[in-house]
Amino acid sequence: MSASPDLRPATEVRPSSAVAIDISAVRRDFPILSRQVHGRPLVYLDNAASSQKPRAVIEAERSLYEEYYANVHRGVHTLSMASTDAYEAARSKAQRFLNAGSPREIIFTRGTTEAINLVAATFGRSRVRAGDEVLVSGLEHHSNIVPWQMVCEEKGARLRAAPINDDGEIVLDELAKRLTTRTRILALAHVSNALGTVNPVAQIIEMAHARGVPVLLDGAQAAPHVEVDVQALGCDFYAFSGHKIYGPSGIGVLYGKASLLEEMPPYQGGGDMILSVSFEKTTYNELPYKFEAGTPNIAGVVGLGAALDWVGGIGLDRIAAHEHGLLEQGTRRLQEVPGLKIIGTARDKVAVLSFVVEGVHPHDMGTVLDYEGVAVRTGHHCAQPVMERFGVPATTRASLAVYNTKEEIDVLVEGIQKAREMFA
Ligand code: PMP
């Protein structure tokens, strides 16, 4: 038994993008991909909801619990120090992953939802006043709408949304019109979960900053597919979730510019976020601990570090190239299906295929596909305003990851044809 966690930063080792990924080897890393569903090989196409986990992540959590687990930031004993080292090493991995300037700017949260709630409840509540505005877009996940709505309701402010066009792209002129002297923050998806649209965030941040408006990016769907450099983007906040990037659930990251985090009040009170407590006065801990009250999700953090290493070991550029090939093939094949309409046809997209088929309810589609071993998501994808914009109550969504194959797209299309024959 060793009490030494894996502290190696694999994200720095980048294989050349010219070398294609060995997908069979990648698939062997994911134990769950060898299982069957209803007697068929699992075809897992629900990655935008949550992705599967490679052995490296499972192993990182196992070895933490079996070899060096203890609470972090508390003990002088060997195990506590080893756990703390692993926890803080994961913070540095997240810092490198986002190219943040300092680990002080990396706060661990339960996920994207909590990260956005944290910013809304601290930055939002201290800056938004009656008559002010918060700007989002028509493509947002409910997690990037409701926290802002709550702040606006409390303060007597107004939540505005920049509209999207028929391809599912934000209409930039309309967004610009809504960036006014009253706008206190622009909160925007980097990539849409329902449609796959990649927003031109660098351009949008420039527009917002030119008007003095800070920008939060919801990176839940971007981090697994797109290289993110928060310093190059200049965004003020960036949030993503572990479970969508091959890491554990219940863990996520909030990046915030140190200057903003310093001025924000704490989110929750409790252990770890204090320097000293008396009944008269509490002084708060320094960054990032000021925002990490209570015993954190230690295994989740260590697992997330392993996931970021795993992704870095392959290279997001190669992952994106592979997924883009699947998106092109999938789009072509789906367009051949009579009565099928793809919802979300942005020029810049990640590998998300949202669609409706005439005469087939998405839930029936999902059930037929499940019997073929194909896991897809059906419903409104926690983005009801997007569904409303396209005049559909729900879609079927196939969302792809690095381990998906061309053959799996063929199985999806055969399943869709089967559902059409049954229902349409
Ligand atoms: N934003 C987007 C764009 C998402 O896709 C999701 C997850 N579906 C979230 C926010 C919320 O993420 P989590 O549930 O991990 O907090």
Description of the structure:
The protein is α/β, with parallel strands linked by helices. It has two domains: 40-47 and 315-423, Aspartate Aminotransferase, domain 1 (Alpha-Beta Complex); 67-312, Aspartate Aminotransferase, domain 2, CATH 3.40.640.10. The protein is built from 14 helices and 17 strands. The protein has a seven-stranded mixed beta sheet, with helices on both faces. Strands 13-14-17-16 form a four-stranded antiparallel beta sheet, covered by helices on one side. Strands 1-2 form a two-stranded antiparallel ribbon. A hairpin with a 2-residue loop joins strand 1 and strand 2. It is globular, with a radius of gyration of 22 Å. It starts with 22 loop residues before the first helix and ends with a helix. The protein binds 4'-deoxy-4'-aminopyridoxal-5'-phosphate (PMP). 4'-deoxy-4'-aminopyridoxal-5'-phosphate (PMP) is lined by residues 111-113, 141, 143-144, 189, 193, 218, 220-221, 241, 243, 382.
User: Count the strands?
Assistant: 17
Rg over C-alpha atoms, rounded to the nearest angstrom = 22 Å
Fraction of residues in β-strands:
15-25%
Q: Taking all residues together, what is the mean pLDDT?
A: 95
Fraction of helical residues: 25-40%
Tally of individual domains: 2
Q: Regions with pLDDT < 50 over 5+ consecutive residues?
A: none
CATH architecture of the largest domain: 3-Layer(aba) Sandwich
- How are the strands ordered across the major sheet? 4-10-9-8-7-5-6
